[in-house]
Design a protein that fits this description.
Elements: E1 5-10, H1 14-25, E2 30-36, H2 40-47, E3 54-56, H3 59-63, E4 70-73, H4 80-90, E5 94-97, H5 104-117, E6 122-125, H6 132-142, E7 149-157, H7 169-186, E8 190-196, E9 212-218, E10 223-229, E11 237-244, E12 247-251, E13 259-261, E14 264-266, H8 273-293, H9 302-321, E15 325-326
Parallel strand pairs: 1-2, 1-4, 2-3, 4-5, 5-6, 7-10
Antiparallel strand pairs: 7-11, 8-9, 8-15, 9-10, 11-12, 13-14
The structure holds (2R,3S,4s,5R,6S)-2,3,4,5,6-pentahydroxycyclohexanone.
Length: about 325
């Protein structure tokens, strides 16, 4: 049995570079064996100081490298399908950053390929499931501690958007996290999505309507709403308030340190998602590694990636027509039951 994962990280951009540092310094049972980036100098910079790691310019080279026995995919989503199908053909553990793929049709092809393989190899990088407060709220829901869950109110605010962040990306890149969180909290599929476009900020780049209000329904009728506001300027905030029959639970506020000094009170706002979810990423990657060493996966599946891609597709249609759009899902294969 494999004792150590020798990981090829494909994509050394913002998220890839973060995971390379994590694997190299904080994660047990895994090492960075190779880093691949189309920008070869970026791959070279990423392996600096990592003994035994090689920089490569091509994903195939990494997958055919005998020293590699696992892969972490952190390229832009439109490149995922091809890499995932090749990695599945090698039958090695895969951690794929979200989204699984950018649309339901390609995500379904990945699900089918894994089904043909006959066992689960892909874990999708929905890190919020590994955040301590998310996990605590999930437990309150599953244990029915406060009766039935009735509604979820989500706030998802980013300080600014990177260049090239399109209007569709408010759904595909950002609200995709809430689609996964709602499915995780309720244990149900999402049945419809509606997007309302109200008054917009002058601070959004051309082409983006910001903020947007997303209304979501699940199979049992839990209603959820998301304020997605990606040019909010003040900092980063991902928070949820859950309404139950017997109480209200809030998670995700900035909790301190809270200081009173010099005639003022307050604390600092979290600057970005790396700081907000740094600990969750560590737990997520450790969970992937531990499970992979046992021949399992340790988090969201390719089915979760497919189901959220279908929600995104409905969400982007709803952005355009303002209507409540039904989420279309194929039947869930036995592999994911
Ligand atoms: C980014 O890709 C993320 O995954 C962040 O968690 C999210 O807050 C942001 O909106 C996305 O662009």
């Amino acid at each position: 049995m494999t004792k150590t994962l020798r990981v090829a990280v494909i994509g050394a951009g913002r998220m890839g570079a973060d995971h390379i540092q994590r694997l190299n310094t904080r994660i047990h049972g895994a090492e960075v064996a190779a880093v691949v980036d189309v920008d070869f100098s970026r791959a070279q910079a990423a392996i600096e100081g990592i003994p035994g790691a090689v920089a490569l310019a091509d994903a195939d080279e990494a997958l055919n490298n005998g020293d590699v026995n696992a892969v972490l995919v952190a390229t832009p989503g439109f490149l995922h399908e091809d890499i995932l199908l090749r990695a599945l053909a090698r039958d090695i553990p895969i951690l794929c950053e979200k989204p699984l793929t950018p649309d339901a049709e390609t995500a379904w092809r990945v699900v089918q390929a894994e089904q043909t393989l006959g066992h689960q190899r892909i874990q999708v990088g929905f890190m919020r499931r590994f955040d301590a407060e998310y996990a605590a709220l999930g437990k309150i829901i599953r244990d029915s501690e406060l009766g039935e869950l009735l509604m979820l109110h989500h706030q998802h605010r980013n300080p600014t958007t990177p260049a090239g962040f399109t209007n569709e990306m408010l759904i595909n890149d950002s609200v995709v996290h809430e689609f996964d969180a709602i499915r995780y909290f309720t244990g149900e599929e999402i049945t419809s999505v509606q997007v309302r476009l109200g008054k917009a900020t002058r601070n959004a780049p051309g082409g983006q309507h910001d903020p947007q209000h997303v209304l979501i329904e699940t199979e049992s009728g839990v209603l959820a709403d998301v304020e997605i506001y990606v040019n909010a300027r003040f900092g980063y905030e991902v928070a949820t308030q859950a309404s139950f029959e017997d109480g209200i639970v809030s998670i995700g506020g900035d909790n301190g340190p809270f200081t009173r000094s010099n005639g003022r009170w307050g604390g600092t706002v979290t600057p970005g998602f790396e700081e907000r979810f740094g600990a969750a990423y560590d737990v997520e990657i450790q969970s992937w590694v531990d499970a992979a060493l046992r021949g399992e996966i340790g988090g969201p599946t390719a089915w979760d990636g497919y189901a959220t891609a279908a929600c995104c597709e409905a969400g982007v249609e709803a952005q355009k027509n303002g209507k409540k759009v039904a989420v279309k899902l194929n039947a869930k294969p036995d592999l994911y039951r």
